[in-house]
């Protein structure tokens, strides 16, 4: 079992920020990544639809034979982690809980902001997870849908991103948060812009980093860390891989090639 790969899926390129962190922490692990590029975005879709997509993505990875499933998408994690956990015997790790835990540990003022897609914010998943850890924390959520195309366009530090961030984050500034959860796979690319808008008094919680820590902890505890040398990550996509390879490099922090188109539904 330990020699199997870690399965990671997302709606598209965003989950590559999670893959990048897992690789940084666990360079000896093999990773199989699935980007559901034919059906992206998940962030605007209903819970039922996203859950169905997540089940199909997980089914594809489980069919290959992975030792753990990482739901590297905040929207899919918000809606489908429980269903996936019930269905599979292998560990299923979403991005919500690790980010929530870090935010609850970091905040001094007990005022935490959460930004994400429409779906993630509407689901209330982060608010529930943070308040389950500490009911005295006030959570200030904000949907920031335009950050996704800005990150994919390579405009994360463009003046347009800065203006957009000022607009979206104004209510959170007013609320005097001291920690902000980046509750979408694309947002780590906007860290510089978000930090500039919010100032030094607000800690940014990168759910990709926190999730990688959780994956490492779970594999270690279950004695599932790989012993033989690992090959490079394998990439599967549900649309032609051209755009995924071109845009994905920025999310991965390295050139990306070798995407293979598959059908999962
Ligand atoms: N990966 C998605 C998330 O983290 C963002 C992109 C999408 O809407 O599919 O919620």
User: Which architecture of the largest domain would the CATH scheme give at its second level?
Assistant: 3-Layer(aba) Sandwich
Q: CATH topology of the largest domain, anyone?
A: Rossmann fold
- Give the names of the bound compounds: D-glutamic acid
The CATH class of the largest domain is Alpha Beta
Distance between the termini: 26 Å
Find the count of extended strands (DSSP E, 2+ residues). Answer: 10
Largest sheet: spatial strand order: 4-3-1-2-9-10
Protein structure class: alpha/beta
What overall geometry do the principal axes of the alpha carbons give?
Answer: globular
Largest sheet: 6 strands, parallel
Count of DSSP H/I helices: 11
The amount of helix comes to 40-55%
Percent of residues in beta strands = 15-25%
